[in-house]
Amino acid sequence: MARRLSYSARYEHPAETVYQALSSRQFWDDQMVEFRKLTPQSDVDKFVVDENGIDLVLVQTLPRSDLPSIASAVIKKDMVITRTEKLGPFHPEKTEGTYTAGIPAGPGSLTGVQELFPTESGSTLRRTTEVKVYVPFVNGKLEQLILVNLVDLFRGEAEFTADWIAANA
């Protein structure tokens, strides 16, 4: 059974300003520098911005020794996470996109939709995630562990984004 989570990052900045940050290669390179403080191998593998929007692939490697015991019981090597983010062309009312994350030969899937839209106080980037793990007996625990860590990731990314915009916009 899949588990779902919706997370909203609220910004004091207009949606167009947030979109411009997400459209910047420097933004992603700077974010990878921050990720490397926790995950030494964190890289932008693909970055395309064109008339179709933003198309991005991030690759991070988590050492097996850093994984929680329930995860290291299933993952027998370092965990390589490939994350794909797509956000359509900017639209002032709502910009929509998708994201996925995968682990080679991983025992599950993570998919989601995202939308960036204006609010009275700035803008919101809402991400709705679905996690499925196909390991009997521990699937629910692993799905919950992934979602808890995803909230921490999204929260950290939102703080980074707000700080980066304040310093660079």
- CATH topology, which one? Alpha-D-Glucose-1,6-Bisphosphate, Chain A, domain 4
Strand content: 35-45%
Estimated structural class: alpha+beta
Number of helices: 4
Number of domains: 1
Portion in helices: 25-40%
Please report the distance between the alpha carbons of the first and last residues. Answer: 43 Å
CATH architecture: 2-Layer Sandwich
Order of helices and strands: EHHEEHEEEEH
What is the tally of beta strands?
7
Q: What assembly state would you assign to the polypeptide chains in this entry?
A: single chain
CATH superfamily: START domain
| Overall pLDDT score | 90
Query: Which spans have pLDDT < 50 for at least 5 consecutive residues?
Result: none
What is the radius of gyration?
16 Å
Largest beta-sheet details:
7 strands, antiparallel
Q: Quick one: CATH class?
A: Alpha Beta
InterPro entries: DUF2505
Protein name: DUF2505 domain-containing protein
Pfam family, one: DUF2505
Organism: Williamsia serinedens
What does this structure look like?
- InterPro entries: DUF2505.
- This protein is of the alpha+beta class and 169 residues long.
- It has a single domain (3-168), classed as 2-Layer Sandwich (Alpha-D-Glucose-1,6-Bisphosphate, Chain A, domain 4), CATH 3.30.530.
- The protein has 4 helices and 7 strands.
- Strands 1-7-6-5-4-3-2 form a 7-stranded antiparallel beta sheet, with helices on one face.
- A hairpin with a 5-residue loop joins strand 5 (95-102) and strand 6.
- The model has no long low-confidence stretch (mean pLDDT 90).
